[in-house]
Amino acid sequence: MPYEALFYNGPTFKEYRKTLSGESEIQQLDLLLEFMDTNLEKINQEYERNVPHGKVTGAIAWTLFPPEEVIRLMNGVLNVSCSRFEWNGTSFGNVSKTIAFKPPVVPGSFPITSLSAFPLRYHPQYEKLKTRLIARCHRYTKIVKRSHMCYNGTALTRDPLDLEVASVHLNERVMIDYAEFVRQDPEIAPQLETDPGVDIAEDVEYEKCWCSNPDCKVAGRKKSPTEDARSTGENAPSEKVQDPEHDAAITITDDEAFLCPGNIKWNQEAYSRLEMNDEYKHVIRALVEAHRKHPKPDSEEFDDIIAGKGLGLVFQLQGDPGLGKTLTAESVAEQASKPLYAVTSGELGTTVNTMESALKKAFRIAKTWDAILLLDEADVFLSKRSADNLEKNALVSVFLRLMECYQGIMFPTTNRAEDFDPAFMSRIHLTLDYRPLTPERRVKIWRNLSAKMAKDETLDEGGLQQLATDYDINGREIKNLLRTAWCLAKDNRRPLTMADIRAVARISSRYSGTSRV
């Protein structure tokens, strides 16, 4: 459409004329205004006849979209060049996009809000919607840089084999780290138009650019923008928005709150409820706290001769499955208010190249997130080297070399401690040996888990002690047994009882010999 730049700027030119004093300047501007009145007369008449009343015709639908107009897009043939604010992992900036949509093919005028894309200021609940969007924007800019949050909602995941995208429901803690996301898949990073390093907190204002030529040199020049009566008006969104934390009127809908990540509530009781020798727990807590406060020793007496080596904290957790090795790492993370980044040996691969690359990635992520690293089932990387297995020797050597330079807190777990390489043992700060459960320790686990899982039910102490004596099972099996019994009770719509627990134990071959169906 010709003359769109003149149409959008008509009110601005008329206001600007009032400020002029030079005769020559006034004459030049009057010629422009006369030209505009002649060539835009029909458009102006149709605009004034419809748009102030919330209506528009197909012929003048383009007049609703001056530069910097905030629009509400429903679905997508009118081409609208838009820009959206994006984060590329390191900085914020604008990303351009052209949206195509087709105005309704109907005679006469129709409501502006019936368009699949229309200016947000015409929305019937504009002020409420604007307030919610501003609050959501502030929340986004606060968490996107790197945040450890709780999330309860839908997430999209991509199958690494067929690259199909599927939706899953998550109700767990997540790490929001777009920089790492882009690092692993650089092609998805948005190409920002603004200069790198511009931060949203700077509140940079840009001059409105009314030119339809995208290569115009004045576009984007920093300046306090001039208000346009047609594009802003009384209900237009403000150029600057207030932080919602200082605006008590801002609210978020239930649906938005459901999808928004929430702050983590650390379970400080988890560590105290951990079934472990109190002396061990005291030493672990002291070491973790000292490393957290002083990741680099103040005295050079405790530093390695080679800078950057030996600054990590390594706890070796060894013992049979189900005795609390993983729970120990999880409880320490809760106590220290740190993320827990868990990696299994299967994720690291079995060849030297894949293992080295995967382990470097795990160490880098754990360091970036200031996370406690749980390396589960690490036997293959820690076993003794031998003259007849060069491939395994290479795996162990690479692991030892990288581990020595790791500066974070790490918990490698294993079921076989007797086969560890001596070089690894010399790099351990504390070894915890998990012995089989005694009836006394087992009853504590029954008590803790039942109190947490069945909050409204009361299981008598004598019954719990009898369960600990009757069933020689580990902590994970106790948890599974309790969960199954709890589900059985809920299905019958009654509180959990000892009868439910023993009923599940009777039909499970793990607890009572052989199950018969």
From TrEMBL:
Every AAA+ ATPase domain range: 311-437
Ranges for region Disordered: 219-244
InterPro entries: AAA+_ATPase, ATPase_AAA_core, DUF7025, P-loop_NTPase
UniProt GO MF annotations: ATP binding; ATP hydrolysis activity
Alphabetized Gene3D superfamilies for the sequence: P-loop containing nucleotide triphosphate hydrolases
Pfam entry (one): AAA
PANTHER family: AAA+ ATPASE DOMAIN-CONTAINING PROTEIN, FAMILY ATPASE, PUTATIVE-RELATED
The protein, known as: AAA+ ATPase domain-containing protein
Lineage: Eukaryota, Fungi, Dikarya, Ascomycota, Pezizomycotina
